[in-house]
């Protein structure tokens, strides 16, 4: 039998339907692969018993001809999602052994459709980071290494465990969240596909909040089609999240293979950075050529406020984070460090429970929201955000269907290599992705090439609000031209 872990999600679905193998066999193959790949540190919790029970239940529905759209498909879940009876920590010490009493809407929809949970995936603490090095569980390793090198690379962040697990065949797909790039950047660093849906497309209920006006859940998988399949189950209106939007969920998979002839694709000139590597530049031009060969029309567009996006994001996101994280006080959740009185207990708990990056964000956020600085920082950043959104609206009003950019300014970097002396060095990873969250738009990252050391590089497509289908159609064109990227196995 072929290695069940290397199937695409679509092929596994077919194999299950044809009864070529059972859901239990598929799940067991993944559990065995996870056990051998612990060096990657992708999973912070494996849930084999639950996985086998779900797989058996899926086999029963398949036998009865009542299988859901994801029946028997083994998935990993970012540890930011609440999972009933299964520890959820946001990879922070402050949540300790927190065991939620409820399930996030997104994951409950995956289980409703028959998917199997293999375990919880590592991420940056409270999803703050671009390398998965801020996790209380330690860094995740990228399954990719530079040619001829044994140096460990980061998988990107914050959803680094999700990306690494999918790229290393430790699940057929995974959930992630993206506040400033945390799905798209790790997808690009590991040679897989990740999509951040339009703000409001997936419910945020039951997902640990980082910056509520920017956070959005989305899928990772090894092909564009597989992400489209997962998206259909994850998306949808939820009365428990007032920002979730009540519109029908399309059959995203139907967008795969659809002609992109006549589509207008914008190339934003402001994304051509000074000092950008020739490799990224060539990848971008190659992507544009592929879309052109498929019948799309390429046009240069301008998004004039792009250069303000990163600084504005690093005001808005910490501001919201400082407010959201106020609830971790040692009283209601997880860890508690005692003190002489309640104030000291709060202080001790928060000082010990939060890692350095999270403390930095809380301090920045508290500062920009404080009386006297609110207008100068927070209010101004919100105004910049409106201008960034308007830039995109103007481009779409010119008849542009989607915008093509690089996903990241470089390939994956080494563990411990960036952001030690200057956190801004790390923040610069998000230069091409934060604009999309600021504007609430959908964005997909698709692997499109390799750098000279053999590491995968991704392209990003940005769409109109709620037009994920166009991104799937265009992403598929790039994938067909670029082929697939598989890391050489060194971990098992
Ligand atoms: N790297 C960005 C940050 O640290 C984005 C993180 C995310 O999207 N969750 O804020």
TrEMBL record:
Listed InterPro entries: Amidase, Amidase_CS, Amidase_dom, AS_sf, GatA
Superkingdom as given in the UniProt entry: Bacteria
Keyword set includes Transport: no
Gene Ontology cellular-component annotations: glutamyl-tRNA(Gln) amidotransferase complex
UniProt keyword annotations, A-Z: ATP-binding, Ligase, Nucleotide-binding, Protein biosynthesis, Transferase
Active site: 78 (charge relay system), 158 (charge relay system), 182 (acyl-ester intermediate)
Gene Ontology molecular-function annotations: ATP binding; glutaminyl-tRNA synthase (glutamine-hydrolyzing) activity; transferase activity
PANTHER family xref list: GLUTAMYL-TRNA(GLN) AMIDOTRANSFERASE SUBUNIT A, TRANSAMIDASE
Role according to the record: Hydrolyzes indole-3-acetamide (IAM) into indole-3-acetic acid (IAA).
HAMAP family: GatA
Protein's recorded name: Glutamyl-tRNA(Gln) amidotransferase subunit A
Organism whose genome encodes this protein: Afipia clevelandensis ATCC 49720
Gene this chain is encoded by: gatA
């Amino acid at each position: 039998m072929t290695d069940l872990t290397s199937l695409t999600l679509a092929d596994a679905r077919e194999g299950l339907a044809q009864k070529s193998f059972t859901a239990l066999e598929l799940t067991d193959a993944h559990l065995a692969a996870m056990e051998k790949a612990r060096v990657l540190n992708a999973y912070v919790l494996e849930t084999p018993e639950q996985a086998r029970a779900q797989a058996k239940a899926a086999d029963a529905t398949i036998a009865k001809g009542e299988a859901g759209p994801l029946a028997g498909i083994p998935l990993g879940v970012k540890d930011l999602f609440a999972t009933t009876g299964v520890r959820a920590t946001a990879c922070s010490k402050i949540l300790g052994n927190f065991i939620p009493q409820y399930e996030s809407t997104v994951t409950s929809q995956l289980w409703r459709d028959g998917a199997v949970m293999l375990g919880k995936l590592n991420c940056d603490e409270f999803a703050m980071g671009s390398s998965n090095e801020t996790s209380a569980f330690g860094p995740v390793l990228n399954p990719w290494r530079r040619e001829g090198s044994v140096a460990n690379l980061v998988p990107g962040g914050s959803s680094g465990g999700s990306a690494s697990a999918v790229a290393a065949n430790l699940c057929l797909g995974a959930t992630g969240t993206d506040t400033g790039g945390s799905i798209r950047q790790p997808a690009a660093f590991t040679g897989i596909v990740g999509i951040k849906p339009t703000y409001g497309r997936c419910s945020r209920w039951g997902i640990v909040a980082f910056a509520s006006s920017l956070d959005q859940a989305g899928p990772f998988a090894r092909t564009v089609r597989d992400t489209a399949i997962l998206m259909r189950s994850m998306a949808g209106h939820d009365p428990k999240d007032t920002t979730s939007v009540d519109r029908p969920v399309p059959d995203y998979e139907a967008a795969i293979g659809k002609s992109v002839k006549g589509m207008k694709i914008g190339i934003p000139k402001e994304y051509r950075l000074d000092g950008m590597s020739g490799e990224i530049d060539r990848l971008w031009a190659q992507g544009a050529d592929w879309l052109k060969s498929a019948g799309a029309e390429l046009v240069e567009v301008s998004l004039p406020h792009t250069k303000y996006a990163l600084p504005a994001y690093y005001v808005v996101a910490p501001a919201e984070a400082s407010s959201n994280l106020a609830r971790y006080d040692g009283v209601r959740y997880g860890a508690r460090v005692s003190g002489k009185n309640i104030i000291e207990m709060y202080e001790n708990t928060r000082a010990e429970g939060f890692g350095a990056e999270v403390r930095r964000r809380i301090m920045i956020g508290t500062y920009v929201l404080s009386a006297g600085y609110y207008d100068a920082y927070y209010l101004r950043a919100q105004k910049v955000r409106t201008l960034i959104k308007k830039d995109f609206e103007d481009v779409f009003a010119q008849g542009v269907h989607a915008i093509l950019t690089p996903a990241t300014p470089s390939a994956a970097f080494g563990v411990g290599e960036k952001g030690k002396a200057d956190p801004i060095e790390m923040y610069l990873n998000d230069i091409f992705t934060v604009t999309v969250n600021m504007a609430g738009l959908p964005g997909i990252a698709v692997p499109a090439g390799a750098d000279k050391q053999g590491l995968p590089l991704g392209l990003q497509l940005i769409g109109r609000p709620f037009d994920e289908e166009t991104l799937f159609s265009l992403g598929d064109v790039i994938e067909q031209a670029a082929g697939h990227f598989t890391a050489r196995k060194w971990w098992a």
